[in-house]
Specification:
Length: 468
């Protein structure tokens, strides 16, 4: 008995794993709690595209100490998912994935990168759809499939951005979706959603969604159909409104969607600083029946001026929060996340449209659903797996403290550390109290309070302010 209770007590101090999400109809669902999930996401790419540097063994999830620093701050902010664009399948991501998992955050992973041969070329997609390209996308799946917090993969990002690219690219993105889903079906223990991240170009947006979300006639369980559809939207600027921003048109467009819809990027930066008044609308009654939340662009400041934090990428790696960070945190903190994240799963059945020319309305948008054939040799990779196989696994993290100096926008130094959450818990805005250090997350399991009340839980979580 003694041993058993000691084990139970010890078990309570281990960081839990988030519950892997599933797609059901037009929602992401948590199969443990049987609730619908809203993404409270953050675009995460320290150093921008230069942060992906395979020749120097560097990508945004390769440095565990940096991930601890950023996961701790995102925990305070309140996000429950990160989107990461450019990754090297051959680097070890275990520490970063485990830190984000312990912090209650999912990962949305782009399988492509801007380097040549690592994404579809939208000017000539037929030239870029070949064996080594697909092998690389499969290698990304291998590297991330075993982390429970991998929420999904993007087969493409903004490859269709104009009437011109709408004419040629869609069958290739749909083919990559098919290939990734076949790879996952054959090589992964669980089904992981695959989707597309669209540019919010209204001349091609609705057709893109219709093209990817339909099911090809006669195909049982059509593998080329997207599991989710997302858009990068910057139409809400300043203190706008549901109608002024055009969000109302998006809701009307996507109403009745057969796949989850979310913003894979949002956060217009004019005027600056930002006011983030879209937050209560994105997570409010007008949007949540159709949208599953969104990803704020972006965590780290770059030349394009969308960052929430200035980060010294070289040297001391210190972080200085910008005022936008606090503004976003305040907007999140105002909402009732318990009710937002406990919405019942929709019981109304979605109708999956059958692919046909009549679904496509734009002049010149591709309406050919005969997809490019799998390049030769690729079926072997799907059948036998990538070789050699990158691997990923959750590891135990013994020290969640942050090594680097953090300063807030008013010049105060912040003491932060990652607060590991209980099993099945996801991070929730407002739950990591900035002055008391309390952090409980939204628990979806019975052990919800074990983490918060257990004396064995590290007490270094949360934020303590001290004036400099
Ligand atoms: C496939 O991907 C793996 C992992 O990145 C790599 O080691 C291997 O060389 C690739 N094979 C081909 C044929 O591109
Ligand atoms: C870190 O380095 C940056 C620039 O390299 C400097 O501006 C900043 O003051 C340094 N911060 C600390 C805490 O040393
Ligand atoms: C949805 O589909 C299931 C399975 O076909 C059926 O049992 C259920 O009644 C349907 N629900 C609605 C609201 O139509
Ligand atoms: C549709 O695409 C397939 C595959 O690329 C091609 O063979 C076929 O000719 C196309 N059909 C039309 C009507 O363009
Ligand atoms: C923080 O946690 C302690 C101990 O569980 C509790 O007494 C206190 O009320 C909490 N404070 C806040 C602000 O939630």
């Amino acid at each position: 008995m003694l041993i058993e209770s000691a084990l139970v007590a010890f078990g309570a101090t281990l960081a839990g794993a988030v519950t892997s999400l599933e797609v059901q109809g037009s929602q992401f669902i948590n199969p443990t709690t049987q609730t619908a999930f809203q993404i409270v996401g953050m675009a995460y790419q320290i150093g921008g595209s230069a942060g992906y540097d395979p020749s120097n063994n560097k990508d945004p999830l390769s440095d565990g100490e940096v991930c601890k620093r950023d996961a701790a701050l995102m925990q305070v902010l309140g996000v429950n998912a990160i989107r990461v664009y450019n990754l090297d399948p051959n680097l070890n991501h275990d520490e970063c994935a485990s830190v984000f998992n312990a912090a209650g955050m999912y990962m949305i992973i782009d399988v492509n990168s801007p380097l040549s041969g690592e994404s579809l070329n939208s000017a000539a997609p037929w030239e870029s759809y070949y064996d080594t390209y697909l092998n690389r996308t499969f290698a990304i799946v291998e590297a991330f499939k075993s982390y429970p917090n991998t929420l999904g993969f993007f087969a493409g990002n903004e490859v269709i951005d104009s009437v011109k690219t709408g004419a040629t690219v869609p069958p290739y993105v749909r083919a990559v979706t098919r290939d990734l889903k076949n790879y996952i079906k054959k090589n992964s223990d669980r089904s992981i959603p695959v989707g597309y991240s669209a540019a919010d170009v209204r001349s091609v947006l609705e057709d893109s969604w219709n093209y990817f979300a339909c099911s090809i006639e006669g195909e049982e369980d059509d593998m080329s159909r997207a599991d989710m559809f997302a858009l990068n939207s910057y139409s809400w600027c300043g203190d706008s409104s549901f109608t002024e921003s055009g969000y109302d048109q998006l809701v009307a467009m996507f109403e009745g969607t057969s796949v989850p819809i979310f913003y894979s990027e949002f956060g217009c930066n004019t005027p600056s600083p930002r006011v983030f008044t879209e937050i209560p609308v994105i997570y409010g009654d007008q949007m949540t029946p159709v949208f599953s939340g969104g990803v704020v662009y972006e965590y780290a400041q770059e030349a394009n001026n969308y960052g929430l934090a200035d980060i010294a990428n070289e040297g001391n790696q210190s972080v200085t929060l910008r005022s936008d960070f606090a503004t976003l945190q305040e907007q999140y903190a105002k909402l009732d996340w318990t009710s937002i994240q406990s919405a019942a799963i929709s019981t109304s059945n979605v109708t999956i449209p059958t692919c046909s020319k009549s679904l496509i309305s734009g002049d010149g948008f591709n309406n050919n659903f005969t997809l490019p054939a799998l390049p030769s040799g690729v079926q072997d990779i799907i059948d036998n797996g990538v070789s050699p196989k990158p691997t990923g696994k959750i590891i135990s993290i013994s020290d969640y403290s942050v090594q680097y100096t953090i300063t807030d926008a008013s010049g105060s130094t912040l003491e932060v550390s990652v607060k590991p959450l209980a099993d099945d818990a996801t991070n929730t805005p407002g739950s990591n109290d900035a002055t008391t250090g309390n952090s409980t997350g939204t628990s979806t399991g019975s052990s919800s309070t074990a983490s918060a009340s257990s004396p064995a839980v590290r007490t270094v979580g949360g934020v303590v302010r001290s004036n400099v």
